[in-house]
Amino acid sequence: MNPHRVEETRVKEIAQIARKRTLRVAGLMSGTSADGVDVAIVDLSPGGIRVRAFETVAYPPAVRRAVLDACRGDRGGSAGLSRLNVLLGELFAKALLGAARRAGIAPRTIDLVGSHGQTVWHEPGGRRMGGQRVRSTLQIAEPCVIAERTGITTVADFRPRDMAAGGQGAPLVPHADRVLFAHRTRRRAVQNLGGIANVTYLPPTAAGGDLLAFDTGPGNMVIDALVAHVTAGRMKFDRGGRLAARGSACPALLDELLRHPYFRRCPPKTTGREQFGAAYAERLIARARRRKLAGADLVATATALTARTVADAYRRFLPAPPDEVILCGGGARNDTLVELLRAALHPARVLLMDELGIDADAKEAVSFAILAAETIRGNPGNVPSATGARRAVVLGKIIPAGT
User: Fold this and answer.
1) 8 A C-beta contact, residue 112 and residue 17
2) What number is the average pLDDT over the span 9-33?
3) What is the pLDDT of residue 28?
4) 6 C-beta neighbours (distance < 10 Å), count
5) Torsion-angle region of residue 204: left (phi > 0), alpha (psi -120 to 50) or beta?
6) DSSP string for 305-359
7) What separation in angstroms does the CA of 310 have from each of 101, 278, 294?
8) Exposure letters 21-45 (e unless 16+ CB within 10 A, then b)
């Protein structure tokens, strides 16, 4: 076929998707905990949003180790990163096709894929290079592989455009938070407890005003690393917060940890493994060893750190205390962490996102489905008041369907 005609056909297919009032979109996401691929298949219509399927497909252990090594920035080199990018593309595509099959959803009925990919580097502050400050972010899981294997037009690589416009490249979920949870009269905070914890503050729609969003600090990332350490790798995370519940937070060590300069920095701001990853956990373990802390006490201290930094961020930076705090992400399943947050955020009502009809584990994947729909329709997806960008921009790159 004439290559110009092929290109023209692809453009027409994308335009047809953009004109549809109701879209079925698959959102794909792997967070900073690097546990695996979250797959959400969502119907987006003028009447609302319906999640048709959600599941998490775990990474094989060797793949997770490779991802965590890549996040350190000093291992594997360009060859290893290139191979991992393609491998994750294959795994993302396989996860989507498997989830669709198990839900009884034919892939041909899915109009669009929105893939966040896997963040392996995020440095919004930048470094000097070539005579200028270079601000960078890198998400892998090759979207061309996803489009080719699934036969579905794919939108990916959402963060760089916001950074090119002067933003932090994160958080990118506030637009989706506003679509899903803005309330006419209530002040709401949507608190994600992923590897990194982030909040979106939603003022009442009746009152107007800009939303505010930023990373509050570590969510599960430090807790997970310490659990793996104290259990000699037998556990990857503190299921239900049971290990933390057996211990007691060390007040002196907690006070030391709360002096980290990130917690005092004003929004817009984002963070990740570069500040709270493996090196941070190793320093924390060394401090705990000098204090002769028991393993459960160390995990309890890290759990208290997450709760305190969330509550302190609200007091420092939110324009008014929220009436409701809506929890999502893996940390919403940590009962000990949730109870600490309820105590620290009183009198706000703290509830799980499940109570509002969206699986708390699915929200990030659902958010990137929403962002993909905005991209395909040519609408901006970032919120400059959250990311610090100079202007609202259309996010991501579009890879036409592979069939």
Assistant:
1) yes
2) 89
3) 98
4) 11
5) beta
6) HHHHHHHHHHHHH-SS--SEEEEESGGGG-HHHHHHHHHHHTTSEEEEGGGGTS-
7) 39, 21, 25
8) eebbbbbbbbbbbbbbbbbbbbbbe
Partners of 37 in the beta sheet?
57
Mean pLDDT computed over every residue of the chain: 93
Cβ(13)–Cβ(153) below 8 Å: yes
Domains of the chain: 3-169+362-399 (3.30.420.40), 174-356 (3.30.420.40)
**Res 11: pLDDT:** 80
Paired with 197 in beta bridges are 193, 217
Overall size of the chain counted in residues? 403
Asked if residue 171 has a cis previous peptide bond (ω within 30° of 0), the answer is yes
Percentage of the residues of the chain whose pLDDT score is greater than 70: 96
> How many CB atoms are located within 10 Å of the residue 391 CB?
11
Phi-psi region of 70 (alpha: psi -120 to 50; beta: other; left: phi over 0): alpha
Strand partners, 368: none
Q: What is the pLDDT of residue 209?
A: 81
Q: How far apart are CA 347 and CA 355, in angstroms?
A: 19
3-state SS class at 46: coil
The amino acid that residue 188 corresponds to is R
pTM equals 0.87
Dump pLDDT digits (tens) for 275-320: 999 899 999 999 999 999 999 999 999 999 999 999 999 999 999 9
Contact in structure between 307 and 344 (CB atoms under 8 Å): yes
Instruction: Examine the pLDDT at 121 and tell me if it is beyond 60.
Output: yes
Counting beta carbons within 10 angstroms of the beta carbon of residue 16, is it exposed (0 to 12), middle (13 to 18) or buried (19 or more)? Answer: exposed
State yes or no: pLDDT of 166 exceeds 90: yes
